[in-house]
Hints:
By secondary structure, the chain is of the alpha/beta class. 27% of the residues lie in helices and 27% in strands.
Amino acid sequence: MNKKDKLRSHMAILRNALSSYERENANDSIFNFLYNKPEMKQAGRICLYVSLPEEVDTHAIITTLFKEKRDVIVPRVTSDSMTLHSILSYDDLIVGSYDIKEPGAKGNNVSLDDIDLFVVPGIAFDRHGYRLGRGKGYYDRLLSRSKAIKIGLAFSCQIVSRLPRDIYDIPMDVVITEKETITI
């Protein structure tokens, strides 16, 4: 098992140790920090992940954006990359790759250049903005081609001082936890 895989296992233990009360309070705080960021208020087209139960919950953010009639973009995993699709409701999502909810194949494609802001998951983040993902590199390949603002969401237990990184790893501009906003 390499360094990154060991760290993934360790971070999963820390993240899974959060009680439902801690997780709910953390999600509320992270939502408020993210929602009130000027970058979020000014963004027209926002690409977000649809959270899994163990991740920072994005459902409240997505629902709020729907209510505000803002453009919600969600990635879809294809063989070795991600495509971006506009959604109008949760009904536009299916269970796709890796049991993650994503747009169906018939969704409206969106150009990477049209995205103003990315909200990105991670297993861990460091104080330099680097993230540890699931190890497939989908987000790094996608984000390497974008000039949009990149915001990572994490619980405070997922922040480390420095992650092992490779040349292709793409740092976030901001990382938000329930306790702090780390601006890179």
